[in-house]
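Why does residue order matter? Because the sequence determines the fold. Keep that principle in mind as you read this record.
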Amino acid sequence: MSVGGAICPGSIIGVMGSGQLGRMLAIAAKRLGYRVHTYSAESDTPTGQVADVEAVGSYDDEQAVRAFARGLDVLTFEFENIPALTVEWASQECSVRPSGNALHICQHRLREKTFLRDAGLPVAAFQSVSDEADLRNAVRNLGVPSVLKTAAFGYDGKGQRKIGPQSDLAAVWRDFNQLAVLEAWVPFERELSVIVARGVDGSTEVFPVCENVHSNHILDVTLVPARIPEAVARDARSIAETVARALDFVGVLAVELFQLPDGSLLVNELAPRTHNSGHFSFDACVTSQFEQQLRAVCGLPLGSTRLLRPVAMANLLGDVWEGGEPDWISALSLPEVKLHLYGKMEPRPARKMGHLVAFGDTVEEAANLVREARSRLVRVRAHASSKSGDSGS
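Structure:
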């Protein structure tokens, strides 16, 4: 149902992909009265558990993709690694936002970094690598330490390798043996991210800058607002808006940044979708990143991104389940803590199963509280394991 060009409540929103980002988008859509259809290769998915229709099919199945898209008012995405041809098929049947071109750029490190550099945005020095000779040449040009990254399908630290003075480049290349990017080493002080929404009319709304702490290359804790000077925050927001405009983006875009010791910023990566670091917004902003994605792709006015209180978010990985069911009661006995679980039935190490959010009068207080809440889950597990060991001796 369309009114004045906007796709109004009661319409059908399609989501390519079916993970936790799609799940939270579907929850936001339900609150506004939209219906949600999701498409992926799996069933009983985090998104499918909430959606009105869960379509199961291959992204390479043209007939199935077209049939899915024909039943939609608009199609959006919860992850970017959708084949370009799939997006093209869908775009011939319904509105697709963001565009296939934006996804094409962001799903490939070399295309993404080249785009950013050509747009005049700050990025670390990089060089394309397609064979061992390229790698040796790039190391000579960029020096060591440096980081070799696969051009495609890399996330949470996957497909990355640090290059040092003693690295055996022949062995490194045998392990990679695919198109890659060598990046100069960045001695950053903080990792930041900015979530920006851009509407059909080109209007933008930017969320508060996030400060991200990683563990084993996976986001561990996000603090909002970031503990940075306002001048740095202003630069970060400006960069995010510039990227969104340069991509002619419609939807929600995450821009990951490195803050250098002098306060300057470098763009690390883009995510053309909602982002793990933006989960805090579900509880802590006037409009969440998920509702904002819905507003943007439907042509509705964008909502306020104002932060209601200082907040911290902590990821819950499958490791928390290692010794049995976590003690949710202990964690939730802290009244300023909220729990989000993603409906995934099989906990595995490093698998994102959910997150905790905590509030405080300061961001440091919120960070301490969310870590305390998570530690209560693990502490009960360790105690149970100890009792089990005692009884068997």
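The longest helix spans residues 363-391.
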